[in-house]
Structures are given as structure tokens and as C-alpha cells.
Amino acid sequence: MEERRHEWDLPEIGLRRLGSQDIQLFWKRFAAARGPGLSHGSLYSRWRVVNDETVISLYLTNHSVGLFVRGHRGEPYSATARRLSAYEPELGTALGAALRGDYPLCYLTDRPTAMTDTKAWGAAFDWLRAAESRYETVLRKVLEGSGRARGP
Which domain of life is it from (predicted)? Predict the structure, then answer.
């Protein structure tokens, strides 16, 4: 079983933040392992387009990697959540995540990881790659194959 790092473990690896060079290197290495199709979201995120209305947003912080589902650039959370609610509960069950949670992000899931420790990146890459692949497969299947009327 992999040792799970916690925020209180950070002094062992040094109190530091990810710099822009660290973040760019993380995404460069992730893209090389994951293959083409990632779009630049921001310094901290990359996007995988599922369809014209749906994007998987992958992100990293000092303390975790994760992903969530969003709409196209500029679409507010409320519009995305309303649109995706037409696919509930099937979509949430298949993704293993809630449409609406503690944050205004649809189907948010993350893996706590001390990202300031580059030795932890391999496990973060593996988790993020698997989670992204699962989200993409489920979203394509449910959104494109449900035959349900979209939206409210």
C-alpha cells in the first residue's frame, strides 16, 4: 500500500510552493504520458474536450491533483450543473462523484498528494491518467448515448 502524505508531512520535504516552472514541467510530463488532446486551461489546469458542451478540467495544487466536469469557456457553473442534471442519477453514479458538492464544481474528485515533492508525481500521473480516462469514457457513453432530452 502506498504511503499517503498529508499536509502535516510537508516539513519533511520542505515548505515550498509549486513555482510556474514546476507546474509547466508537471503538465509537460503528464501530456507526454497521456498523449495528445489536452488543451491549456490555465497555469494550474488542462482541459480534455468531451463534446461541444462538456470539458474535463484536470488541475493541480500544492496539495492535490484532481478533476471536475465543466462547460465550455465562459459557461457558469449553474448552467453546467443544470444541463448535466438531466443525466442524473446515472452520471453521478457512474463517475462516483456528486454533481453538486462543497464547491461549485461538477463531479469534483481529487487525490491528496504533496505535489511539491516531485517523487510523488509518478503516483499523481497514474491516478490522474486513470481518473481522466474513466471520466472521458463515462461522459461519452452517458451524454452521447442516453437518448434523453437535454437540459430542463
Answer: Bacteria
